[in-house]
Amino acid sequence: MNVDSRSVHAFIIGEHGDSEIAAWSSANVSGIPLHKFCEMRGHFNHEEAMERIAESVKNSAYEIIEKKKATYFGVAMAVKRICEAIVRDEKSILPISSMMKGDFGINGISLSMPAIVGKDGVECLVPIQLNEEEISKLQKSAKTLSDTLGQNEI
Is 16 annotated as catalytic? Predict the structure, then answer.
């Protein structure tokens, strides 16, 4: 789109792995909905690109493991960023694992969701707009984690 990536705001939510979700319906470029911004920049067939990007993000860990045998450097950078937000009381919005308490019909499982992070850790989840398909995928992601933990309730 020929725009600084720091102006693009989008989240990957859910579990960190095969059932993660690109929350496209809440993605924006400096407040302009992503679909509208794409069309402003002359990109009209962006659905295919969005699917390709989501798959690339989801599969990036596999590529890193294949080449470096581990993903611990990426995890370390994420932990460093979270620690900075806490130590500096930044009130930054970061996608971090947080306990779900009924949002999107999910309860009692931790999922990566945008949250305000400050000196006390997670201050609150940031409500994001999801369409019905994304909500369904998020619920399936929660079920994936729940099943892995041997729980029956989400």
Answer: yes
